[in-house]
Amino acid sequence: MTTLANYEVQVADLLHDPNNQTWTLVQLDRYINEARRQLVADTGCLRTLQTSYLTQAQEAYTYGQVCGAAISGTMTGYLTGDTVSFSGGSGSGAAATLTVASGAVTAITFTAFGSGYLTAPTATITTAGGTGAVITVGILSANTLDVIRVPITWGSTKATMKWAPFSQFSAIYRQQVGMQGRPFIWSDYGANQIYVAPIPDQTYPVEFDSVIAPADLTGTTTDPIIVNYQSPIKYYAAHLAKYFDQSYGESAVFKKLYHESVERTIGQVSTSRIPDIYMGLPVR
């Protein structure tokens, strides 16, 4: 299990500065964490299935925002006028209203999706006597670097939605303004937003198969980047140290070593797989 201290030793050795006389540990930690983010961006090695929801009538979903929510539980005693609030998740600004019928919360309508959420916030209902309602919130994390695949659940079926470039998506699938149905295609718009079509006609559970930027390592936290991918990190951190020291020649050497290490790492961890035992040769 690799911690920040392990990386500090590796980078200090590369820089011939084992006693941290030229670069402080604070500086090395900054370079190491930047190198970890760079590695994930270059290789996609930190991949996560974000469980979330598509909201009725909501076409666009932005990184860092709440995407939707589901209501469950055996409920009694809720009244019109009960409210819901959101806390946690490192973000802010999400707001919604509740629909209540026969003592049960039957719907949640978002009036704002907030921003900056890294994890799903907790939904809390303020009520005079209602019990049993559970609201599960879904987000698209602000740390998302890329969305690769979006499986959508419809009843007992989980289907992977098709993807199209936004120009094609917009020209073909957004012609009928406001058309609602079960989404079957998605597209990314810019660096931090996706669109779906048709516009959802109800709440749908989804999984955002995505690449996530790693949180900074501190203290004795274990790096979630698997060991097989960690080798290039020390080279990029050393490159940054030399670059900010204005030793540009040595900086370029370490950057070259980083790229070579990335290529070597990808070659080592990518194993041959046979997608179908009846279909020819293995692929990488």
**What would you call the shape?**
globular
SS-derived structural category: alpha+beta
Query: What percent of the residues sit in helical stretches (DSSP H or I)?
Result: 25-40%
Give the integer mean of the pLDDT values: 94
Please compute the radius of gyration using only Cα atoms: 23 Å
SS element count, helices: 5
Total beta strand runs: 17
**Unreliable stretches, pLDDT < 50, 5 or more residues?**
none
How would you characterize the largest beta sheet?
4 strands, mixed
Portion of residues in beta strands equals: 25-35%
What does this structure look like?
The protein has 284 residues and is α+β, with helices and mostly antiparallel strands. Helices cover 26% and strands 33% of the residues. It contains 5 helices and 17 strands. The strands form 7 sheets. A 4-stranded mixed β-sheet has the order 2-15-14-12, covered by helices on one side. It is globular, with a radius of gyration of 23 Å. The two termini are 28 Å apart.
Q: Which tags fit this structure?
A:
single chain, 284 residues, alpha+beta, four-stranded mixed sheet, three-stranded antiparallel sheet, 5 helices, 17 strands, 26% helix, 33% strand, globular
Could you outline the blueprint of secondary structure elements for this entry?
Layout: H1 4-14, H2 25-43, E1 47-54, E2 60-62, E3 66-72, E4 83-87, E5 92-101, E6 104-115, E7 122-126, E8 134-139, E9 144-149, E10 151-154, E11 157-160, E12 162-163, H3 166-173, E13 180-181, E14 185-188, E15 193-197, E16 199-200, E17 204-212, H4 231-244, H5 248-269
Parallel strand pairs: 12-14, 13-16
Antiparallel strand pairs: 1-17, 2-15, 3-8, 4-7, 5-6, 9-17, 10-11, 14-15
Helix pairs in contact: 1-2, 1-4, 2-4, 4-5
